[in-house]
Amino acid sequence: MDDPFNGKCIIKCNKIIGRHLVANKDIQAGETILKEEPIIVSPLWHSEPRCANCYRETSTICKTCTIFPLCSQCSSHDQFDCTFIKNQELPVNFLVENFAVFAPLKALLYLENETTQNHHTFLEMECHTEERKRELIWESYKRTVVEPLLKHLKEAFRRTPVNEEFIQKICGIFDVNAFEIRGPDGIDCLRAIYPSAALMAHSCIANTLVSVDDSFQIKIYATRLIRKDELIHYNYTNPLLGTAERRKQLALGKYFVCECKRCADPTELGTHMSSIACLNCKKLVSPSETEQWSCANCSSTVLAHDVKELLKEMDTEIRDAAGDLRLMEMLLMRYLPRLNPSHYIIIDLKQNIASILRDICMDPMSKPGRKVLERKIQLCDDIIPVLTVVEPGISRLVAIALYEKFIPMLELARREYETAEIGDVLYLDRLYVVESILRTAIEMLLYEQVQSAEGRLLKKALREMGSLRKTISYIQNKIRNE
Length: 482
Prior knowledge:
3-stranded antiparallel sheet, Methane Monooxygenase Hydroxylase, Chain G, domain 1, mainly alpha, protein methyltransferase activity, SET domain-containing protein
């Protein structure tokens, strides 16, 4: 079989992290490590019915097999799947009423199809069956996936043993290995299996990024120099969560406790994304694995349980305030005295506020006031230093934040120039600053898949760079001629 990594990395295995990838040579920042097509794509378990061909939401089904959802814009879906299911005596609404079976059913069809390859690769993927048997997820899948499949399709497949253990194994393979990817509507509503990409180990400070294009091809590229024999890893979780939340997600979904350098550091590499303010002396109190957190300055203590409940309450309030700019700003003012300014709850709240302001700034029918523009810039300035630590090197998060800072900075400079608040020289200086910000964002977005949301953002940024440089050239000539 061809080497999907082109000699850049090799597969190794140990008892701690199982199979994983190690660099077989020095890999430069931005260098592509892998491009891979998915072997199976499926909507998320809890998703509304989606078209089996394009994955848009739909309420109609295929007229041929009368089982798989198929939207009005698509005339067919996978021929083998359609023909196979057509020959089974299934209730018309079987998949619509039991949509959680979509992914396992697609996997069973993939394994049944003699024209598909590397079945053993899929079946060798980690599934943590023994651990899952002791959890509620086992009973949940038994009710929503196993029982419907065994009731209607137990005798349908010839190449695989369709029993409870095997179906649960497939569910485990998806939960442990699948990548959540965007659907055609731009939201993370799909899961895809990429056997080679799934070999990457995890780190909360990863050395790769993953980019998925509109046809679901995945690209993995290095975010910094990766030395020969160094582990290849990416971040399985949201880097903007605190350590306790990241570890909780990894333990529940991936069945391990992360011991990376960020998780091992109570200050989270100096970001203090989980630290709170001491009620007594106002200094920062970093998390502890004991039941009490202790202030290093005044020795005051706070119960870990109380912190957990406080953060839970704050998270609920933020979700309840979604879309309400005034209420979110009020919550921010209330939370800041209690949490570190770069606490993950504060960062989440600031990102929510920045998102609302972004929509205002980018609305062609809106002309945001000076305070809105300045507030947007300030929020970006607050967030970017944290992003550069938790996603070092080439960073999609930093690139997007820089682009969102560029927009109000340029607009503010233009307005001040047009109203004669600043002259040619100062305006040119301001243009140089925003050009530098936009250039850095572009340099980080260059490695994204062309046909992806980030690839389209890159095209837009390049157009704006061209326009900006024309303005700079015009002002330069004007100054020379004065």
